[in-house]
Amino acid sequence: MAGCFACDKITKFAQHDNYRLNQRLNVIQAISLENNNLTAHPGQFSTIPANPEQLSIYLQQLSEAIINGYRLERSEAIALTQIDGQENIMLLCEAADRVRHACCGNTVDLCSIVNIKSGNCSENCGFCSQSVYHPGENSPVYGLKTQDEMLAQAQAADEAGAKRFCLVSQGRGPKYYPQSQEWQVILDTVKRIVNETNVKPCCALGELTAEQAKELAEAGITRYNHNLESSENFYPEIVTTHTWQDRVATIKNLKEAGIQACTGGIIGMGESWQDRIDLALSLRELEVESVPLNLLNPRPGTPLDHLPKLDVFEALKAIAIFRLILPTQIIRYAGGREAIMGELQHLGLKAGINAMLIGNYLTTLGQSPAEDQAMLASLGLVGGDAPIPGSYQ
Q: The pTM is what?
């Protein structure tokens, strides 16, 4: 019933009184024409109008400025977090969607992932059920899968419509086990996926040396997932067995090797809005290509299992602000999409999202790829390979 009530509210938002809507659009068009030749200046968008119609005009001007190359300052991004109320958040989402459409187009990047080694992880990430410090309830534990097992799952992802397939492993990373036989197994598996399927292989293995990043690139890896999770300031609240800067070092190694960085974080771990803004700004500074946004789905048995589930509109607000800070990046719906967004998950695709994981996650289930494809079609979007920053025309 709660989901239906929320859907009814969204329908009401979408069916504004025609006269009022036309009035607002006329004002927006007039302001747009008037300011067409003006250049945005730093700090211009630091004050949020209180009036809904003025807010709509402000967001129209903001989205136009971003589309034309303006980039938000920290104070302006933080100001956007003051936008509250479901109707106002939907206006924010509309602005983000305009930016997404203009800067990235209508192709939604589809990726599938598989856990190739699970459980007994040496790290104490508070959100993860695979840690040896706090093994979650019903979290699987197994060693590295065989090449044939990984290849079979890559082929299944290919058949489901995924364009990329990511091999994900627990642990701090190959950097600390340079002589491990598992490293060669992974390199050989990547080569087989390149040669025997139509999906592009990706990896998420933890920290890498510069030399290991080059080896992955030579094997056929073009994108590597390595999340920062949150701001540098908040990071010690969720992980203490390694540092935020340790993660950054690997991202720089990836970039140096010519591998695209798929780097994002998790919303809903108790971080502040300032932490979320600082994460987005760090991702912009690092020039990452793809930004997975996980919505925390608290796992039983983990240190964060007591946290309440994220509110749908808070999630939408975060997605929209990330898009306005990162106009050309691939922004990906990742873990927690179904659990947090439920029947309203399609709204994220109209709030700045242009990529998503399809199928199951590492330790939780997702909805079927067929349902995802139907959702995209209903929104006029198409699954494929989304453009990386600077490549969309």
A: 0.89
